[in-house]
Design a protein that fits this description.
Helices cover 48% and strands 19% of the residues. It is of the alpha/beta class. It has a 5-stranded mixed β-sheet with strand order 1-5-3-4-2. Helix 4 crosses helix 6 and helix 5 crosses helix 6. The longest helix has 19 residues.
Amino acid sequence: MKTEIVNCQVKRLTLAPWNPRGEITPESVADLMASIREKGLLQFPGVWRNTSGLLTVIFGNRRVVACRELGMETVTCREFTCSEAEARELTRIENQVRIGVDALKDADLLGEMRDLGLTEQEIAAHFGVSLATVCRRLKLKTLASCWREV
């Protein structure tokens, strides 16, 4: 996987729809905006160029929203040249250690990675978790799908 530091137009960045942290509102980034205003952007968002050439934010969605709200035109990002499965993997890795990631959203993300062709064993190896953990999350996804249909 190749990475490169690039400057991106904030308005051209799209947020990853698979991000497990869910919807981001301006209210939810108020403290982050104050920090960026005072200290600048301390960590670069990660982006991935999809097959259509669009840049998708794979981690740092809140940072990008805060920059938009602050009226910033460009932001420095770390661009990853990788497959969509790897981009989704990076999203999960970045969010895995954070508090507040919903188990159902994590299960959905793992299911999407399986749908992209990864086996349960490959997913477990990528994230350094047991096969049982991956299987439990995928079972949760199946149960949640049944529940969501009711």
